[in-house]
Amino acid sequence: MRYKLLGRSGLRVSELALGTMTFGEEWGWGASKEESKKIFDAYAEAGGNFVDTANRYTEGTSEKFVGDFIAADREHFVVATKYTLFMRRDDPNFSGNHRKNMVQALEASLKRLKTDYVDLYWVHAWDYTTPVEEVMRGLDDLVRSGKVLYIGISDTPAWIVSQANTMADLRGWSRFVGLQLRYSLIDRTVERELLPMARALDLGVTPWSVLGSGVLTGKYNQGDTTGRAKLWGDIPERDLTIAQAVVTMANEIGCTPSQVAMSWVRQQPGVIVPLIGARTLAQLEDNLGCLNVTLTGEQLAALNEVSRFELGFPHEFINSPQIRDLLSGGTHDKIDNHHFN
Predict the structure, then answer these.
(1) pLDDT tens, 161-189?
(2) What is the pTM of this model?
(3) What pLDDT is stored for residue 225 in this prediction?
(4) Of 3, 43, 57, 128, which one is the catalytic site residue?
(5) CA of 264: how far to CAs of 126, 206, 249, 291, in Å?
(6) In the chain, how long is the greatest CA-to-CA distance?
(7) Is 57 a catalytic residue?
(8) Pairing relation of β-strands 50-52 and 17-19?
């Protein structure tokens, strides 16, 4: 395991983060405490130090398990948790981005985690009701109190993240150093705005669902998808085509489809730290195996082609040959542009 700086910070995190939404069985598909401990230990033994949870995961059980597992060496681990999603139904102030929920959610998380502080505190999702300045000032207060060391944001439009960090920089508040989002070969739409913004603002990116809810393992190309359809809906033919390309490439390389799919994500530009989640030790070990797989330029290009999608306006308009000519007076190909990749 190697380590990366988390965006515009000096925090060193392992190149794979352990997602713990599977810790606990309250939702009907997670791992027992015994199996969760095996998963955690295997990740730590591989050199992993970045553990990601949330107050809502398995009704709080995930945080309790993580708290027990890190207790023997709390300072070694970079512990991230989140707030925003409800913890008490039918009570409007037990959810949302606002300061009241932010503070009470953190206090409850610290108790479950059995720690005095969290290394990284995520806004779990944007609620479209709380002013940006309230969120950023509230988070900055938590950092100044010592209960939070760094802050990040998840599942939020790029323009809001940009506004928030610009405001924080101007006012001397803590800025987001991390961005969490959904990203895989079957869902590349974050390449339109979120990933370019992350590179421009130097945000570390922790993608989730890098296996496309299991589709990229290839298991649905061969078997019945009825059980999955009950939860997520039918699998589009395009997704199965991409999954088959991943399976074919894995057979050629001599690794698993999961390792190919995760390696593609890991090798994208910017600070990319994929979240790996598992319900069994075997799944975790398979995921860790992606560290031994490096795709060639030709292999990356082939996967990019089979998963190609439309960037839409204004990206395709601006990058069309006609507009490029108008913007550069015919000199576009002669300009070495280091600002974008």
Answers:
(1) 999 999 999 999 999 999 999 999 999 99
(2) 0.94
(3) 60
(4) 57
(5) 28, 14, 12, 11
(6) 65
(7) yes
(8) parallel
